[in-house]
Write a structure and sequence with these properties.
This protein is of the alpha/beta class. About 40% of the residues lie in helices and about 20% in strands. Strands 10-6-7-8-9-5-11 form a 7-stranded mixed β-sheet, sandwiched between helices. It has a 7-stranded parallel β-sheet with strand order 20-21-19-22-23-18-24, with helices on both faces. Strands 14-17-12-13-16-15 form a 6-stranded antiparallel β-sheet.
Length: about 1000
């Protein structure tokens, strides 16, 4: 089609009308290649040839010829070849059908020439490359061994030897891809496929995989009553393993055989897509998992009773242990001992009378673990308690739950219920490539072109253009320091410049991210033209929220109106005065109501609203039917699907920004363990009864879980989707990377920012090589930046590696000390503090004071470092060795997890681990590339890293001696890169990396 269209375009460009396009004017020299050519040129008419007079045209009965008629004739050829005139027209994609319709009836008042036709045909080709055929996804099947040996060879009537299995597979694959394949259900788990050649009996083996268990040549009188057309592509795999692999690679493109039998329908007749069930499962399983942290215990009577101490012994419960065993978990007593071994001693426990998921109304004691001992020959555990516990009872020990946890789960479930009918969003959350964007939305509140004065580098311009072009969800992958906030701020500014009344929501998991976003937005947006509202979680300990301050400011502005103005009535004015300065309880109640009403007014009138993804305000806006023109979600890689759905539901245009190479959603890997089919089935067995104890859950939750319990095929599909929705940002980004690699074409959905302006180039090289396949580059600005750290008797290199000896090489008993659930390493802390003392900030007149942060993955090490540096902090100036704190609050030490999104001029980090353990236990948090990425990428000018190269090398080699484990390859890359950079000379600073030996006492060696 493209070749013929190109030929016609060339004719038309030369002013020549073909006039005789038809099935007999198109030919090919050979069958094995598609070298189609347009003939009949002897009858072409040049537009300067004048009147055709009575001779007419050689190939047309009528003398009517035109450029437009040529395209109509080409459409007629295509329709004839595709069989449109037959009884069963072909199933085409919407983009294919649109092109044929435009060719059949070209627009008369729009430009429609060869260039337009060729562009539309290229769009068809691109779409076919994406989905694989003129179908919406694939149905995957494979032949059984016996069928491959007998039934399938018989279909070829001896033309192909039975021993040539490759040729037989190709023959059957071609048959299954022929036009007019039809299907009819043949039983609960079987279907029959009919082609012009054969009938195939297919057994549904798993949700998306079928097995051909029989086949025979179709007889002339063999028809199947009730058969339906197959609109999906049928993919024939060699065996079960390759079929499962194909399904995994296709993701949402792999279609369910079960859908062709009996679609799951809701009570109201709407079709519930598996993604909706998966979102419910995320939250339901979060609640149901809690039952495995309820431990039956007996209250014992010690010989010497102590006040405010209760002794508890694990109680036997065979039924509970059997349930745990079915889930692949330890016995309750063993699990409790293991959990208490690393308890942090805080009041993290309580007791309840029953094993219900929800606590009753009784007052629950606050328990803190204090130790273990023998009471009457039984191993028992001592807990400090604030209430008296009667002796001899069988109770249930359980973690004290944050009171906001259940509220947040209910909120997310309500958002999921609201999204039930939004099939476009539900499908897009799993794979935006499967969903077309509504064309009407593309031009509403669209940003302008990238601003020339913003100094946007190429990858930001590409991201900008992709967002403007628009998909159902656009994804921007932002490695450290690339300016994600900078890009969003310019987009928001452009949107409001083009459409001043546009409404924009910016959301994030992290409250600190919104604080930073608000600061950046106020730099770009005119203060008198735009209201930026930040909605914070309501905590009595927090300062007054930005929203409430804005509301108070508005009320104060009208508290003393012009006496000649009647805008504010006397009664309203009195209420405002009361709201601002209530004098008693009654007035306080009125004040609260007035301020809440004003808060709502501010929210509805703001151009830009900033709210966390868990904010109750989002739920209220969804319930009120509010809608924003744009929703930007920052740090989207840290949220699961249920946490994202509320903010996404509020947007017409949606953009998710994040980095799946940094921290993942909390507990995602542990939650995935419950998506195994057998575990999930066991968990669902009594899910309805368990969840009944929790009040105010939407009724649809029970219905959905019962549907999953009754349909194993649906359950398998939903579990696979739920696993992806634990990290939807990662799932989308990685799938688009794979598509780009397979097709060689850039993704229209996901773009990656490549140029960073935070880290000194050498630090960037370390991070880029270790985590980003050397794709992260440094901007010119960062290359020419002035130094902010000076050293005295310490290497000036941008990276200094404090190399502690491996425990296996010294006589010391240990470097690590366990502290409750965490670990500290005093030797690394000592070395780190000694290094920090040798550095000072370079303070430039009129510029901010350079900052310092000390990081570690382990909380115990953070607490130890805080104790070491506290005497060195200048309280009056809020500085440490002259450096300012990174967040301006006098705090200098953080866990690496809590500092994602932060940055400092000088970063000093301790990795802590150094032991003689074997396996992944030896590495602990170091084996997590996301955590290590955050830790290494916070430094702007200088990174000081304390750990043991030899320990890491030994541990990695012990786990993976043949270097075939990709999961640990990043550690080898990091160590190799440190060695490489230690040999690179840089102007003004010397070596890119300096390796400073540290002795076993933590002293820096010269």
């Amino acid at each position: 089609m493209v070749r013929i269209a190109e030929a016609l375009a060339l004719c038309h460009d030369a002013g020549i009308v073909h006039g005789g396009v038809g099935i007999h004017s198109i030919f090919s020299h050979r069958e094995e290649s598609a070298d189609y050519r347009l003939g009949g040129v002897e009858a072409c008419v040049h537009i300067s040839d004048g009147d055709l007079e009575a001779s007419g045209h050689l190939f047309r009965p009528s003398a009517t010829i035109s450029f437009r008629q040529d395209w109509i004739d080409l459409a007629a050829v295509a329709r004839e070849l595709l069989g449109f005139e037959g009884g069963t027209p072909p199933q085409l994609l919407s983009v294919e059908r649109r092109v044929l319709e435009r060719l059949t009836s070209p627009p008369q008042f729009q430009l429609f020439d060869g260039a337009v036709v060729l562009e539309e045909l290229q769009n068809v080709i691109a779409e076919l490359d994406r989905v694989g055929s003129s179908s919406d996804g694939e149905l995957v099947l494979y032949p059984s061994r016996s069928v491959l040996q007998s039934d399938l060879p018989a279909l070829a009537s001896g033309a192909i030897p039975a021993t040539d299995s490759d040729a037989i597979m190709q023959f059957v694959s071609d048959d299954l891809l022929s036009a007019g394949v039809r299907l009819v259900p043949a039983g609960q788990d079987t279907v029959r496929l009919m082609t012009d050649l054969a009938i195939y009996n297919v057994r549904i083996m798993s949700d998306a995989v079928g097995m051909i268990e029989g086949a025979h040549q179709r007889r002339s009188n063999e028809w199947m009553h009730g058969a339906i057309d197959i609109v999906h592509r049928l993919h024939l795999s060699r065996n079960r393993a390759s079929a499962e692999e194909r399904v995994q690679n296709l993701g949402p493109g792999a279609k369910r055989w079960r859908d062709l039998l009996e679609p799951i329908r809701a009570a109201d007749g709407t079709v519930d897509v598996p993604v909706w069930f998966a979102l419910i499962l995320l939250e339901a399983f979060t609640l149901l998992r809690e039952q495995f942290r309820l431990y039956p215990v007996d209250v014992l009577a010690p010989v010497k009773a102590e006040a405010n101490v209760v002794w508890l012994a694990p109680g036997d419960d065979p039924a509970r242990d059997a349930h745990r065993e079915a889930m692949g978990l330890r016995r309750a007593a063993d699990a409790l001992r293991r959990e208490l071994k690393h308890d942090d001693g805080k009041a993290n426990w309580t007791l309840s009378q029953s094993a219900r998921l929800a606590m009753g109304r009784e007052r629950a004691p606050e328990l803190s673990y204090e130790g273990s001992g023998l009471i009457g020959g039984k191993v028992a555990f001592a807990f400090g308690t604030n209430l008296s516990i009667p002796i001899g009872q069988r109770l249930f020990l359980r973690p004290r739950r944050d009171t906001g946890t259940e509220r947040a789960i209910r909120r997310r479930l309500q958002n999921t219920m609201a999204a039930r009918s939004n099939l476009e969003l539900l499908r897009a959350l799993d794979d935006p490539a499967q969903v077309a964007m509504d064309e009407v939305l593309r031009d509403i509140a669209a940003p302008g072109p990238p601003p020339a004065d913003a100094d946007l580098e190429q990858s930001k311009i590409q991201a900008w253009e992709a967002i403007v072009a628009g998909r159902s969800i656009n994804v921007v992958v932002g490695p450290p320091g690339v300016g994600k906030t900078f890009l969003i701020s310019h987009l928001v500014k452009s949107i409001l410049q083009e459409t001043p009344d546009a409404r924009i929501l910016v959301s994030s998991q992290n409250h600190e991210t919104l604080v930073h976003m608000e600061e950046e937005l106020r730099k770009f947006l005119p203060a008198n033209a735009t209201i930026v509202v930040r909605v914070e979680r309501s905590r009595s300990s927090e300062k007054e929220s930005t929203l409430r301050r804005s509301s108070t400011s508005l009320l104060r502005s009208v508290a003393k109106p012009d006496l000649t103005s009647a805008a504010v009535m006397a009664n309203q004015l009195h209420q405002i005065v009361q709201a601002l300065k209530p004098v008693d309880t009654s007035e306080q109640s009125i004040a609260d109501r007035t301020l809440r009403d004003t808060d709502n007014l501010m929210l509805r009138s703001s151009d830009v609203t900033l709210a966390t993804t868990s904010s109750h305000v989002l739920e209220e806006m969804i319930a009120d039917g509010e809608q924003f023109d744009w929703v930007f979600i920052e740090e989207a890689a840290r949220a699961n699907g249920a946490e994202l759905i509320g903010a996404l539901l509020l947007g017409n245009r949606r953009v998710m920004i994040g980095d799946h190479n940094q921290l993942s959603p909390f507990d995602a890997s542990d939650r995935r363990k419950f998506y195994d089919v057998s575990r999930a089935g066991e968990l669902l067995r009594d899910a309805k009864e368990k969840l009944a104890a929790i009040p105010d859950l939407p009724g649809e939750v029970d219905v959905a879980l019962e549907a999953l319990k009754a349909d194993e095929f649906l359950l398998r599909d939903v579990l696979a989707i739920a696993s992806r929705l634990e990290e939807p940002f990662r799932s989308i980004a990685e799938r688009e990377e794979t598509r780009t690699a397979d097709t060689g074409k850039p993704s229209s959905i996901a773009t990656t920012l490549r140029e960073q302006s935070r880290m000194y180039p050498a630090i960037c090289e370390l991070v880029s090589s270790t985590f980003y396949q050397r794709q992260l580059l440094s901007s010119d600005r960062v290359k020419t930046r002035r130094q902010a750290v000076e050293c005295s008797g310490f290497p000036t290199s941008p990276i200094v590696f404090l190399d502690v000896p491996s425990l296996s090489m010294v006589k010391r008993r240990s470097f690590e000390q366990p502290v409750r659930r965490s670990i500290r390493n005093e030797v690394e802390a000592t070395a780190l503090l000694a290094a920090i003392k040798k550095m000072r900030p370079v303070i430039q007149k009129g510029e901010r004071v350079p900052t310092l942060v000390i990081l570690s993955p382990y909380l115990a090490q953070v607490h130890h470092l805080e104790r070491l540096v506290q005497p060195e902090v200048d309280i009056s100036a809020g500085t440490l060795f002259g450096f300012a704190s990174p967040r301006g609050d006098g705090k200098f030490v953080y866990t690496s997890d809590s500092f994602q999104g932060g940055e400092a001029d000088l970063v000093a980090a301790s990795l802590v681990r150094n032991n003689v353990l074997v396996g992944s236990r030896a590495l602990g948090f170091i084996k997590n590339p996301q955590r290590l990425n955050v830790l290494l990428s916070r430094a702007k000018h200088k990174l000081v890293l304390a750990t043991s190269r030899q320990f890491i090398r030994n541990a990695v080699d012990g786990i993976d001696p043949d270097a075939v484990n990709d999961e640990l390859g990043f550690l080898r890359t990091m160590l190799d890169e440190i060695v490489r950079l230690s040999e690179v000379d840089l102007p003004a600073v010397g070596k890119a990396v300096s390796i400073v030996p540290v002795d076993e006492q933590g002293r820096l060696c010269p």
